[in-house]
């Protein structure tokens, strides 16, 4: 038989959390950490959909082995670029969600140096999506 007291307790904590979160949103409206767009319509997020889409669509142009940024006309094979082709790096591949350009640059800066831990989930989701595409897709 379910413990109704326990269910009411969970509901109460959840309701209080929702009320508190709503009150904070009224007093301190959330804005995208990358572009400052108001997020009043997007719930439980700190990065707007547009910025997330830009980061996901921006392909990092780097050597898949060492991570060296590849300029125009420079190519990389599965063995690496001209810099690392004959070097033992201790790992076989590197993966990048994006080059260090906007809006990814601002989001990482806010997370890493300003300690905005609320960005852990959206940034982590970008990494998980990359792992699904690049690693799990190759298995």
Distance between the ends: 46 Å
Q: Identify the overall geometry.
A: elongated
Order of helices and strands: HHHH
Question: What is the helix fraction of residues, given as a range?
Answer: 40-55%
| Uncertain stretches | none
State the secondary-structure class.
mainly alpha
Mean pLDDT across all amino acids: 80
Proportion in β-strands: under 5%
For this structure, the quaternary state is single chain
Q: How many runs of DSSP E, i.e. beta strands?
A: 0
- From the alpha carbons, calculate the radius of gyration and give it in angstroms: 21 Å
* Major sheet characteristics: none
In DSSP terms (H or I, runs of 4 or more residues), the helix count works out at 4
Structural notes for this entry:
The protein has 139 residues and is mainly alpha-helical. Among the domains are: 48-59 and 97-139; 61-95, no CATH class. 41% of the residues lie in helices and 0% in strands. It has helices spanning 4-27, 49-57, 104-112, 120-134. The chain is elongated, with a radius of gyration of 21 Å. The termini are far apart. The model has no long low-confidence stretch (mean pLDDT 80).
Task: Please name the defining characteristics of this protein.
single chain; 139 residues; mainly alpha; 4 helices
């Amino acid at each position: 038989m379910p413990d109704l007291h326990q269910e009411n307790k969970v509901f109460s904590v959840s309701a209080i959390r929702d009320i508190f979160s709503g009150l904070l949103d009224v007093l301190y409206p959330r804005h995208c950490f990358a572009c400052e767009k108001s997020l009043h319509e997007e719930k439980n997020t700190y990065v707007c959909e547009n910025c997330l889409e830009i980061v996901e669509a921006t392909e990092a142009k780097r050597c898949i082995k060492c991570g060296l940024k590849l300029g125009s006309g420079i190519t990389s094979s599965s063995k690496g670029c001209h810099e690392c082709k004959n070097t033992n790096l201790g790992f076989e591949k590197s993966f990048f969600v994006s080059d260090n350009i906007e809006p990814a640059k601002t989001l990482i800066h806010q997370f890493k140096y300003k300690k905005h831990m609320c960005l852990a989930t959206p940034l982590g989701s970008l990494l998980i999506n990359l792992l699904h595409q690049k690693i799990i897709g190759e298995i």
